[in-house]
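Per your request, structure below.
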């Protein structure tokens, strides 16, 4: 490359960069730098969005399990099955739609995540079924489940309730799916609202998660599904007939 060619390339890059709108700062700074570079290189917005969401376990809307209720034995009320529904989503994230269907047909009602003596739990049910799983109680575990595209079941606090049996006030816990986590945000699938993947500030999510017990569960039953394809398939032209 000649000195003149190098000078022209530098001039073109400087002129193109000055014509671009300023990039709003995004925390952390490394993210803003990458976005700025992508824009200067002319990377389409649709491709940037694919890159941004590639680390989110994007379970399709049609596959997301909604919460269901069951009649509580010996009690004239119904209970939700949020923990079971969130576990079914994890099965599907790992390609085990058959297990999700079987679990939903044979389980329901309130359940804790960890095994205990006061009520049924996902952990006890997985043990009875002979299914492998992992439970963690730190942020590194949450990041691992998202990085490996397994997703996990996490508890969250949804107000308080007064127990009709003991008369005490307890935290009203709910179960949802964590499907993405980076330095800035957490992405969640709620089993009561499956229309979209919800995003919230990581700090807010972690605070609520710790207030709800600070643990998470993921099954180990299959191969995590890949992200959305980056290559769009288009119909190919009909090939010419073979020469005789």
């Amino acid at each position: 490359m000649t000195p003149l060619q190098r000078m022209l390339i530098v001039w073109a890059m400087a002129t193109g960069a000055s014509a671009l709108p300023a990039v709003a700062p995004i925390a952390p700074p490394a993210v803003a730098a990458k976005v700025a570079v992508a824009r200067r290189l002319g990377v389409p917005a649709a491709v940037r969005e694919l890159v941004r969401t590639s680390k989110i376990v994007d379970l399709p809307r049609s596959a997301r399990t909604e919460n269901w209720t069951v009649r509580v034995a010996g009690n004239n009320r119904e209970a939700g099955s949020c923990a079971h529904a969130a576990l079914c989503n994890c099965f599907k994230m790992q390609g085990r739609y058959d297990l999700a269907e079987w679990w939903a047909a044979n389980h329901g009602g309130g359940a804790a995540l960890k095994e205990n003596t006061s009520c049924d739990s996902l952990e006890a049910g997985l043990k009875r079924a002979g299914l492998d799983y992992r439970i963690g109680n730190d942020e590194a575990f949450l990041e691992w489940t998202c990085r490996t595209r397994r997703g996990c079941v996490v508890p969250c606090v949804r107000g308080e309730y007064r127990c009709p049996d003991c008369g005490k006030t307890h935290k009203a816990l709910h179960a949802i799916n964590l499907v993405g986590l980076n330095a800035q945000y957490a992405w969640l699938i709620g089993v009561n609202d499956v229309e979209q993947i919800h995003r919230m500030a990581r700090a807010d999510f972690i605070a609520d998660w710790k207030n709800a017990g600070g643990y998470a569960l993921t099954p180990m039953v299959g191969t995590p599904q890949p992200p959305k394809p980056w290559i769009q398939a288009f119909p190919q032209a009909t090939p010419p007939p073979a020469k005789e």
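The helical segments are 3-19, 29-40, 45-53, 82-93, 97-106, 122-129, 139-147, 202-211.

Regards,
D.
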